[in-house]
What does this fold into?
Amino acid sequence: MSSGRRLYLDGVSVVFDGFRALNNLSLIVEPGELRSVIGPNGAGKTTMMDVITGKTRPTAGTVNFGDIDLTRMDEAAIANLGIGRKFQKPTVFDALTVFENMELALKAPRGPLACLRWALTGEAKSRIEQALEETGLQERAEDLAGILSHGQRQWLEIGMLLMQDPELLLVDEPVAGMTDAETEHTAALLVRIAGKRSVVVVEHDLEFVRALGRRVTVLHEGSVLSEGSIDHVQNDQRVIEVYLGR
Amino acid sequence: MSATVSPLPASRARLGLRTGLLVALLLLAAMPVLNQLPTTHPLHVSDFLVSVTGKWICYAILALSLDLAWGYAGILSLGHGAFFALGGYAMGMHLMRLIGPRGVYGHPVLPDFMVFLGYRELPWYWLGFDHFAFAMLMVVLVPGVLALVLGWLAFRSRITGVYLSIITQAMTYALMLAFFRNDMGFGGNNGFTDFKELLGQPLNTSAARSGLFYASLIALAGAFLLCSRITASKYGRVLTAIRDGENRVRFLGYNTTHHKLFAFVLSAMLAGVAGALYVPQVGIINPGEFSPANSIEAVIWVAVGGRGTLVGAILGAFTVNGLKTWLTSAAPDLWLFVLGGLFVLVTLFLPKGLIGLLKGRGA
Ligand SMILES: Nc1ncnc2c1ncn2[C@@H]1O[C@H](COP(=O)(O)OP(=O)(O)OP(=O)(O)O)[C@@H](O)[C@H]1O
Ligand SMILES: [Mg+2]
It folds into this structure.
């Protein structure tokens, strides 16, 4: 959908106690684009998502979604703008069932009174069931999220992301702990989602990135080292040196 | 061993709880009636037991309110006694105004302590308290507004955990010191007492005592139903989620400050109601009610009963206070050690409290 908003990062720096986690980072993700971000440990991939979602304030630089300045908004406001996030370490609510986790994420008015009055309609229920099916969790719907396996927690997080119906999805290492078949399924799911929405995927698994088959950005020491197709970056001498060659 | 012990299915356990609760409610409701039987009757319930149970019912409401904030929203308030005491003071002000010219000094309007301290007229913040409806409004409004201001400042600045607990504890301590001062206009360290009547009924009759007992019981049932509705709603699940991972909830688009404030304010109001019902039953309110130890005791009731379960909070309030009443007469020196020991034991071996024990180890 070309009517969507563009994610625009320009000259973004984040300094932690003198250490530059992001260093003059610039990145543009067009509406509907699917972008992979790779890079060695500590390159700043997660920090970049922290900056976009309001968890970390940049020391310098511009972070815009459409014409909205994200650096002035808190996490909840950014989420309500239509930016959803899946965390590197899956964090679901262990004391709630899988279904209730999905219901909590489902796009709906977020205030206390609205939540008090909330009643599960048929439409909401079928949307949740659809996401449960999509993520292969329909058998676990009534189980507490606390007893899920690591892979299933990943799926639940992805499902919760879908429930939010975001315009931009930030997905941090979605296939860690997944089997090959599950990894393929996830790639297909993300490709299907993109187009209607923008998706930024951080992943170390290059096979997975290849399966996504779109533009790849390589981060290194907090800035963009290389950008292009997977073949392009895999043959980039600097990328081989700092990341692939090790 | 574990294979032979099959825990109750959740639905059956819940049914058992519901039935138990209803039976307990009926037994409580029967107490003032059984009190009317001749003292020689085997089912006679003593005046002492009725009056002490009336107090425990108020404590149970306080425990429920604390459980909503702590057990569900994860806000460990160590100052809930302050909200209880403020509700009690609001009720006390009403009762003082109702004494009218019957005070020792016989002043038509001013309570005795004001005459004694040389007040010429009623301070402005005492106006309106002669009206029952106004006083009842203050019973919920004063604790509610305090919780709103404190909660807004703390939650907005993302103060959580131990720091939040310390702030709430400091709040009740500061209020205690303030209420001890004579120039505050709340009777200093003597507080309020010698109440005469409420709603046109003299307080020293057995009818008035039963009336207050039933009012408290109805309030407890109402508070329980309210909290049940809240915790069973999606809002209740948002609170649980905030308790277990507030940051994550923010990224789902929930303004957790608003959600926590709502629960905290509601909880403070409930605590105020409990205090207001408590004061006419015990016949006195003084700054000692703000003592930090009171708030900590309330936390122990909830922990012992089982936090995050409403029935547990009520059970804990009755059990610990029953034990306290028995021990403080049987072995008064032991009580504080038993209370401390109980808390340690529950924390170490019964993290789900007595209710966890009742529901079976598997639950
Ligand atoms: N809150 C923080 N305080 C101090 N340093 C931080 C903080 N967050 C991240 N860092 C540092 O910033 C650097 C970038 O971290 P980041 O998590 O963004 O890396 P990453 O690219 O996601 O790595 P990985 O592949 O291991 O997930 C790391 O060196 C990390 O230690
Ligand atoms: Mg990372």
